[in-house]
Amino acid sequence: MDRRLQKRYRTLVMQQVQAAQALAAGLHALPGAASPFAATQAAWRFLHNDRVGLPQLVEPLRAAGRQAAAVSQANHLLVVHDWSFLSFPTHTSKADRVRQGHANALGYDLATALLVDGRTGDPLAPMDLELTTKAGVVSSRTADPSPRPHIDQVLATMTASVSWGLARPVVHVIDREADGLAQFRTWAAGGHRFVVRVDADRRVRWRGQSRTLPEIVQRLRAKGVFDRVGELGPGEDLFVAETEVVYTQAGRVRRGKKRRTVPGGPLTVRLVVSQVRGRGGRVKAQWLLVTNVGPEVGAAQVGQWYAWRWRIESFFKLLKGHGQQVESWQQETGEAIAKRLAVTAMACVLVWKLVRDTSPPGRALAKLLMRLSGRQVKRSRPVTAPGVLAGLEKLLAVLHLLDETPVEELRELLHHAFASLGGSG
Q1: Is the pLDDT of residue 240 over 60?
Q2: Hey, what domains does the chain have and what are their CATH numbers?
Q3: What burial letters (b/e) apply to 320-346, b meaning 16+ CB within 10 Å?
Q4: Per-residue pLDDT tens for 44-58?
Q5: What is the pTM (predicted TM-score) of this model?
């Protein structure tokens, strides 16, 4: 982007912070804009500028990710992959919406790869964005508009991540949607590290015999190899065990509505079992994870990495009802929505940076923003990303107001408002 477009980009990021409220489907004016209408026009021109596409708009996000990774103390960085459907059921002006599921929901399918600190679990920056529309895919990675299955999007992002210039080895963390033996073989052959939650109906080779995963878990527990690694709450403990298993079956890939069998050689991986147990040792929840990360990373750490997958769900919530209200945006094309998403993501990166800032000024600012937000929070979590975003929106609005109106004039107006209620103000 040239200097003028960069200036407009920074302005849009600040506007997205100010748009973080339930009825703010549009963009706010900022100091320097002639009027809210002028600010909206400028934003419209930016989002429809052919010289600025999603690949250009994702670069500041990747730069922020590289900067955070460079100062991280983690031995590994996590890239969490997930998808979220942006629902616009009544927005008939959006002619490029796609249908999703049996309910025939209308909207856009958003794929995101979120960079997470492998030591603290802090979200750092979205590094890849793809929005599937009826007209094709709007991607931060490629100009190819051809729709792709979710599992193929994962491989493309893995391949691209090698060129991101991150300062630590990368581990890709994905939920059960990525449970595919053919893909595991492809990822491992490409040198990509992964942690994937798998279904319990898999059959593997274990200690020379063919076993289902539930059978292996049962035998591990009978042998007493589970280790208690922490307490999750009153009466709830986390136990972890691991063992080596070998995939020998052929994989299957979906192409359109058909599935194709893909043979392959044996693939040795680590099976990590995380169990939440209640009183009496009753298993209340269980995650079966497979990974090709080496034994230098303990099973408890692998389980923790998967638990931090939730960070991307928090990002989606920040985009939706907990912050940016994306499903109320009025842009009329998926491409414009995708561009605004990239700008909004930078506002989220700013919020995350403020949340993890432990310096005295950073803590003071976070406390001020939470106070301005008016949010009720737990004592154990006095600072939250949605609260900081809401407080920052109000702080920018106050500063904008003070730039235009003297404090004494504001006091007089407030006095007039209360006087009209019959009081003295």
Answers
A1: yes
A2: 54-330 (3.90.350.10), 357-419 (no CATH)
A3: bebbbbbbbbebebbbbbbbbbbbbbb
A4: 566 667 777 899 889
A5: 0.87
